[in-house]
Amino acid sequence: MKILIVEDELPLLDAIIEIYENESFEATGASNGDEGCYLAENGSYDLIVLDIMLPGMNGLQIVKRLREKQVATPIIMLTAKDSVEDSVKGLDAGADDYVTKPFAAALLLARTRAVLRRRGTVNLEGNMTCGEIQLVSSLRDAFAREEALKLTPKEYELLEFLLCNKDQILSREQIFERIWGFDSESASSAVDVYVHHLRKKLAPYGGDLYLKTIRGVGYLLKGEDHVQ
Question: I want to staple 77 with a disulfide (CB 3.0 to 4.6 A). Which of 98, 107, 125, 135 is the partner?
Answer without folding.
Answer: 98
